[in-house]
């Protein structure tokens, strides 16, 4: 009788899930990626007790009245079982613990940081097994105190825990860099009774070794298996061996005979992450998969044709005999569906099944819910479908069943909030730390340049969990907690007055990401909305995003939005919105993010020159070239020689100008420690060019950098590198390659240099062939410049037209309101102590007050009774002639000494009073000019009036007007004939004094 599989049921969220049995075998314990610890009273338990013990839980081990739980806090926490009261900490690591193993004398735990710690139960001694080259994936301990562990570097190590000696190393296993990405655990398992056998999966077979000689004893293979095996486990008595595959298949072998136990096919095609046998040895095992589901396999030890070992099976058979014939027929049909190998024995009853309509409907229902059944497969075969068609249907069903989780939102340059001391932001500007302990809940801001901003220490009353930091803005956000809505709080360091502003998210929106620059602040919510604010707190735009948001980044007027553009499969499909904010105008460009196969986005941001950059979990850093709309790989974590297999890089800054990446090397963990403060290091951009050991390839690398990256002095570097490559090609007798290089670069500034060099080394034929390229490149450059100029003119056409309209309106607009122009402070003209006193100072207009009597009571100016100084008029110091000064009155003289533009004039057309400006003259003579020049427009009329105005001015009048005090003129006074020139000594002598007596 084949074994039976229960349908896999939901236990935890999608992600790594582990399962184990209570030591008495009565309950199943499961832990998962959601941080929950669940106790199942059988697989059919609909309401298992659940306790959240962390953000993520990776492994659990129960024995006696204790249970050990490995969480993301990098510790192995002990709890009382089943009350789950804390009972101390067994191990501490620098990364999360991935697996645990135990026998009667030792407890071992392996971590992502490539270390294994072993604790002696007898004396409490603890020691480490170090110098591993990858994360620990799975472990098992034997009765003989041997410890076997599979490592991410593709090796299986076996130690003697008594002597701490490495006994054996097995290679050629699947390699993986991170435990979160592992599918093939290669889990070792010792034979439980004596411990003299060790089994481990490799590919599609399970290899059995002798622990004394380390010879291969046997290999178990399933010929029907289509995918590789991931885990394996011995039964409690060591007589059976079970293994799980990448597609969810369970393979069970009898260790003595090597015969495979047949059983049910999987319902879901998810990789098996853990297998564990029931300690009761009742033919039951529990399993978990990578989709957060758990299930069981039963009836493994019951064989067909033998008496049932369980009394419950006898009772079931007795009840089955009491059923009517129709029920027997139904059971036979269901068993036929479950046992495809016995389908031939039921051919005699096939005619009855075809005549039964209920059976047909049942098969249809099963086909709709569970996919094509074996019965329907037989019908398809009878109808003419061959085995290949059925294989196609099966593969389509597996493809639909397999699912992959999408990457969750994250803050670039931050560490997990579950840590008591974490980084909310660690970038090139400063560090924002969050301290969340029982005694303190605060936020500490430290700037790298303490001369620009001082540090900040805030009480975290709102429980902020996200932050963005720029040169002038600190933005903090908190989620929805305890009925309090999500808020954004910003502090502008460059503002004066009130520097802090805040906004509350409407409804039930929750902030999932925030970023800030010196000009904008952007907030992303779980409603797939982007809320854009200015740095001073003005709401700008609310933008909808076409997918789940992953991360944000900002730089000046630009910001990036990374979001899922498609459901995830083996890869994450993430797109990037590059948005530019200029005034209240937005411009967006959308590009796909080039993530490494099977990796996730770990960091996104801008370089110091404003180019978007992305770093993934596989260690690839890429930068976006906007002009070409392409991504360029600029660095790979594998190039860092000091990096270990379990080390990770924490990106701080990408400097495109200096070609360096500032980062923190995290030893054995993903994130840097808060205490002590990590020391950043700089690594140079390393483009994945071929054969960088030779001179030619190094020069080609420099040429690509100068052409595509915004390096310092890029044009100079390009010319120097191109000339060196040109010279190297000429040296190697590759003239065609030299010419091709010049034609590819297509720079008109490079042609004269290479022609001069070619002539110098007597490559006259090459120089002659390069000469015709110069006018071609110059013409191309001119065309490109014209295109750029046309685009610039097209963008600014509206602004230019508006400015022209404003200027023209300011020139031609008539203003009839009287203007009172007070003197600006400090514009009083200083007196000249060297000027000779003459009677001319009393001639003409000495002051507006002395001439106010000429206007009398008939003056239309209501301010004539005031003095000139009171209303801000300045008197003319001298006039060009006494006759002109005697004719003008204060009512007709403005601040410039000319004619008042606000009063009607009696002068005829075409006449110009000396000292009059062009605008008043043009307004007086506009009608006459229009009658004389009927076809002229406004601009032409102004030009004509200017010519006539200049022609009517007497010689020297324009220069005298230009030097008037109102115009701020500084023309020197001409000496009279009677003025004798004075020496410098005599001039200075006037400022001296003679002491009397």
From TrEMBL:
<feature type="domain" description="WDHD1 first WD40">
    <location>
        <begin position="9"/>
        <end position="296"/>
    </location>
</feature>
<feature type="compositionally biased region" description="Polar residues">
    <location>
        <begin position="844"/>
        <end position="862"/>
    </location>
</feature>
<feature type="compositionally biased region" description="Low complexity">
    <location>
        <begin position="956"/>
        <end position="969"/>
    </location>
</feature>
<dbReference type="InterPro" id="IPR036322">
    <property type="entry name" value="WD40_repeat_dom_sf"/>
</dbReference>
<dbReference type="InterPro" id="IPR001680">
    <property type="entry name" value="WD40_rpt"/>
</dbReference>
<dbReference type="GO" id="GO:0006261">
    <property type="term" value="P:DNA-templated DNA replication"/>
</dbReference>
<dbReference type="GO" id="GO:0043596">
    <property type="term" value="C:nuclear replication fork"/>
</dbReference>
<keyword id="KW-0539">Nucleus</keyword>
<dbReference type="GO" id="GO:0000278">
    <property type="term" value="P:mitotic cell cycle"/>
</dbReference>
<dbReference type="GO" id="GO:0003682">
    <property type="term" value="F:chromatin binding"/>
</dbReference>
<feature type="compositionally biased region" description="Low complexity">
    <location>
        <begin position="874"/>
        <end position="891"/>
    </location>
</feature>
<feature type="region of interest" description="Disordered">
    <location>
        <begin position="945"/>
        <end position="997"/>
    </location>
</feature>
<dbReference type="InterPro" id="IPR022100">
    <property type="entry name" value="WDHD1/CFT4_beta-prop_2nd"/>
</dbReference>
<feature type="repeat" description="WD">
    <location>
        <begin position="9"/>
        <end position="41"/>
    </location>
</feature>
<feature type="compositionally biased region" description="Acidic residues">
    <location>
        <begin position="343"/>
        <end position="356"/>
    </location>
</feature>
<dbReference type="Pfam" id="PF24817">
    <property type="entry name" value="WD40_WDHD1_1st"/>
</dbReference>
<feature type="region of interest" description="Disordered">
    <location>
        <begin position="364"/>
        <end position="390"/>
    </location>
</feature>
<protein>
    <recommendedName>
        <fullName>Minichromosome loss protein Mcl1 middle region domain-containing protein</fullName>
    </recommendedName>
</protein>
<dbReference type="Pfam" id="PF12341">
    <property type="entry name" value="Mcl1_mid"/>
</dbReference>
<dbReference type="InterPro" id="IPR048591">
    <property type="entry name" value="WDHD1/CFT4_hel"/>
</dbReference>
<dbReference type="InterPro" id="IPR015943">
    <property type="entry name" value="WD40/YVTN_repeat-like_dom_sf"/>
</dbReference>
<feature type="region of interest" description="Disordered">
    <location>
        <begin position="815"/>
        <end position="918"/>
    </location>
</feature>
<feature type="domain" description="WDHD1/CFT4 helical bundle">
    <location>
        <begin position="711"/>
        <end position="771"/>
    </location>
</feature>
<dbReference type="GO" id="GO:0006281">
    <property type="term" value="P:DNA repair"/>
</dbReference>
<feature type="repeat" description="WD">
    <location>
        <begin position="234"/>
        <end position="263"/>
    </location>
</feature>
<dbReference type="Pfam" id="PF20946">
    <property type="entry name" value="Ctf4_C"/>
</dbReference>
<keyword id="KW-0853">WD repeat</keyword>
<dbReference type="InterPro" id="IPR057646">
    <property type="entry name" value="WD40_WDHD1_1st"/>
</dbReference>
<feature type="domain" description="WDHD1/CFT4 second beta-propeller">
    <location>
        <begin position="409"/>
        <end position="689"/>
    </location>
</feature>
<keyword id="KW-0677">Repeat</keyword>
<feature type="region of interest" description="Disordered">
    <location>
        <begin position="337"/>
        <end position="356"/>
    </location>
</feature>
């Amino acid at each position: 009788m084949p074994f039976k599989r229960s349908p896999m049921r939901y236990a935890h969220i999608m992600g790594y899930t582990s399962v184990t049995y209570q030591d008495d075998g009565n309950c199943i314990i499961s832990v998962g990626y959601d941080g929950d610890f669940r106790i199942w009273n059988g697989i059919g338990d609909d309401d298992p007790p659940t306790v959240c013990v962390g953000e993520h839980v990776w492994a659990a081990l129960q024995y006696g009245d204790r249970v050990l739980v490995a969480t993301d806090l990098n510790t192995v926490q002990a709890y009382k079982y089943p009350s789950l009261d804390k009972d101390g900490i067994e191990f501490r690591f620098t990364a999360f613990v991935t697996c645990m193993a135990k026998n009667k004398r030792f407890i071992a735990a392996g971590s992502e940081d490539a270390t294994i710690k072993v604790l002696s139960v007898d004396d409490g001694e603890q020691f480490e097994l170090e110098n591993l080259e990858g994360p620990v994936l799975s472990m098992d301990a034997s009765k003989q105190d041997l410890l076997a562990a599979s490592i991410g570097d593709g090796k299986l190590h076996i130690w003697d825990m008594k002597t701490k000696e490495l006994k054996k190393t097995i290679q050629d296993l699947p390699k993986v860099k991170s435990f979160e990405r592992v599918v093939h655990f290669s889990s070792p398992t010792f034979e439980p009774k004596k411990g003299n056998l060790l089994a481990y999966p490799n590919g599609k077979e399970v290899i059995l070794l002798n622990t004394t000689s380390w010879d291969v004893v046997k290999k178990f293979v399933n010929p029907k298996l289509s995918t590789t095996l991931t885990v394996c486990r011995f039964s409690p008595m060591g007589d059976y061996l079970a293994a799980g595959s990448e597609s969810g298949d369970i393979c069970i072998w009898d260790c003595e005979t090597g015969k495979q136990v047949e059983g049910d096919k999987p319902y879901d095609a998810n990789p098996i992450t853990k297998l564990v046998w029931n300690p009761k040895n009742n033919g039951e095992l529990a399993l978990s998969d990578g989709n957060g589901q758990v299930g069981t396999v039963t009836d493994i030890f019951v064989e067909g044709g033998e008496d049932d070992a369980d009394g419950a099976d006898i009772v079931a058979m007795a009840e089955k005999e009491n059923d009517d014939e129709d029920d027997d027929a139904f059971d036979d049909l269901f068993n036929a569906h479950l046992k495809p190998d016995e389908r031939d024995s039921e051919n005699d009853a096939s005619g009855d099944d075809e005549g039964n309509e209920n059976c047909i409907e049942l098969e249809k229902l099963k086909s709709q819910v569970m996919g094509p059944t074996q019965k329907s497969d037989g019908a398809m075969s009878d109808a003419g479908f061959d085995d290949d068609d059925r294989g196609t249907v099966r593969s389509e069903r597996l493809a639909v069943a397999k699912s992959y989780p999408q990457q969750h939102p994250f803050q670039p340059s931050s560490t997990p909030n579950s840590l008591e001391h974490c980084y909310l932001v660690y970038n090139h500007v400063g560090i924002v730390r969050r301290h969340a302990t029982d005694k303190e809940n605060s936020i500490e801001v430290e700037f790298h340049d303490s001369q620009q901003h001082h540090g900040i220490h805030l009480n975290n009353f709102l429980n902020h969990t996200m932050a963005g930091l720029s040169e002038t803005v600190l933005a903090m956000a908190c989620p929805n907690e305890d009925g309090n809505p999500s808020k954004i709080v910003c502090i502008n360091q460059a503002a004066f007055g009130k520097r802090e502003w805040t906004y509350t998210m409407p409804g039930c929106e929750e902030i999932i990401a925030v970023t800030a620059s010196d000009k904008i602040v952007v907030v992303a919510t779980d409603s797939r909305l982007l809320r854009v604010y200015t740095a001073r707190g003005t709401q700008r735009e609310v933008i909808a995003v076409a997918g789940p948001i992953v991360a944000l980044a900002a730089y000046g007027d630009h910001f990036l939005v990374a979001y899922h553009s498609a459901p995830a499969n083996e890869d994450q499909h993430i797109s990037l919105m590059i948005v530019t904010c200029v005034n209240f105008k937005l411009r967006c460009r959308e590009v796909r993010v080039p993530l490494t196969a099977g990796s996730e986005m770990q960091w996104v941001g801008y370089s110091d020159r404003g180019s978007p950059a992305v770093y993934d979990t596989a260690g690839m850093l890429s930068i976006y070239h906007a002009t070409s709309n392409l991504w360029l790989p600029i660095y790979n974590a594998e190039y860092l020689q000091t990096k270990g297999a379990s080390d990770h890089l924490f990106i701080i800054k990408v400097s495109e100008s200096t070609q360096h990446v500032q980062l923190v090397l995290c030893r054995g963990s993903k994130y840097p420690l808060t205490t002590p403060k990590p020391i950043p290091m700089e690594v140079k951009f390393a483009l994945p060019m071929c054969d960088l050991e030779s001179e030619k390839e190094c020069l080609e690398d420099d040429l690509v950098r100068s052409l595509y990256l915004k390096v310092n002095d890029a044009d100079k570097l390009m010319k120097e590198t191109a000339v060196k490559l040109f010279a190297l090609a000429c040296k190697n007798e590759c003239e065609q390659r030299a010419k091709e290089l010049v034609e590819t670069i297509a720079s008109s500034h490079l042609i004269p240099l290479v022609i001069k060099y070619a002539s110098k080394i007597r490559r006259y034929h090459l120089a002659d062939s390069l000469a015709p390229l110069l006018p071609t490149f110059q013409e191309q450059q001119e065309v490109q410049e014209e295109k750029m100029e046309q685009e610039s003119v097209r963008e600014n056409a509206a602004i230019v037209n508006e400015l022209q309209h404003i200027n023209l309106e300011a020139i031609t607009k008539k203003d009839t309101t009287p203007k009172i122009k007070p003197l600006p402070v400090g514009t009083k003209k200083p007196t000249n102590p060297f000027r000779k006193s003459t009677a001319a100072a009393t001639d003409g207009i000495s002051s507006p007050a002395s001439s106010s009597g000429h206007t009398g009571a008939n003056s239309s100016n209501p301010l004539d009774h005031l003095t000139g100084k009171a209303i801000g008029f300045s008197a003319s110091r001298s006039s060009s002639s006494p006759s002109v000064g005697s004719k003008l009155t204060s009512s007709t003289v403005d601040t410039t000494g000319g004619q008042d533009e606000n009063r009607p004039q009696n002068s005829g057309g075409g006449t110009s009073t000396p000292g009059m400006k062009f605008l008043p003259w043009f307004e007086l003579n506009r009608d006459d000019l229009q009658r004389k020049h009927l076809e002229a427009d406004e601009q032409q009329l102004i030009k004509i009036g200017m010519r006539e105005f200049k022609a009517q001015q007497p010689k020297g009048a324009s220069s005298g007007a230009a030097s008037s005090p109102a115009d701020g003129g500084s023309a020197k006074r001409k000496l009279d004939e009677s003025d004798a020139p004075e020496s410098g000594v005599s001039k200075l002598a006037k400022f001296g004094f003679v002491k009397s007596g």
